[in-house]
Specification:
It is a single chain. Strands 1-2 form a two-stranded antiparallel sheet. The chain has 152 residues and is mostly helical. The chain is built from 6 helices and 2 strands, in the order H-H-H-E-H-H-H-E. The relative contact order is 0.18. Helices cover 59% and strands 7% of the residues. It has one domain. It is elongated.
Length: 152
């Protein structure tokens, strides 16, 4: 791809994130249903609410949930460089040369993007600063989120 596309602004990025939040909620519900089915399979249905998982199982479930959410981004970014929210807002994740992000970049980006949000969004606010106008997770993963042209 030889055409230089403009970098996506913060408002579009947040709009895509909000759009994706609805899908992430659905993934969370499906993951919770899976955990409930597993609990029923291992413990039966009698007094199910009285059976509490161990601390290890709770942490394992938590990290499994984070893996499911991160997996959504990883798969979407590796397959076509866009999540559903990014498609709706005409955004694409790519490397500087226009190629798709590598698996390592996608993994690091999903981890760093989560941390950026967790720390009051500071990593996202970074893209308000000139001249590069890139988020911290863009910079550290050598990726960019670009605005695609309107299709006619």
């Amino acid at each position: 791809m030889t055409e230089q596309l403009p970098t996506a602004n913060l408002l579009r990025r947040i709009a895509a994130l909000v759009y994706d939040a609805f899908l992430l909620f659905a993934i969370t519900l499906a993951y919770g249903a899976l955990l409930l089915v597993l609990k029923i399979l291992f413990n039966g249905v009698d007094n199910l609410e009285d059976i509490q998982p161990s601390l290890f199982i709770q942490w394992l479930s938590f990290f499994g949930w984070l893996g499911a959410l991160g997996g959504y981004y990883f798969i979407c970014w590796r397959k076509q460089g866009q999540t559903m929210g990014m498609k709706a807002w005409r955004l694409r994740l790519q490397q500087a040369d226009g190629s798709l992000a590598t698996p390592q970049q996608c993994l690091y980006r999903s981890l760093l993007g989560t941390l950026s949000l967790a720390f009051a969004g500071i990593g996202f606010l970074w893209c308000l600063l000139p001249p590069a106008r890139e988020c911290l997770h863009d910079r550290y993963t050598a990726t960019q989120v670009v605005l695609l042209a309107k299709e006619k």
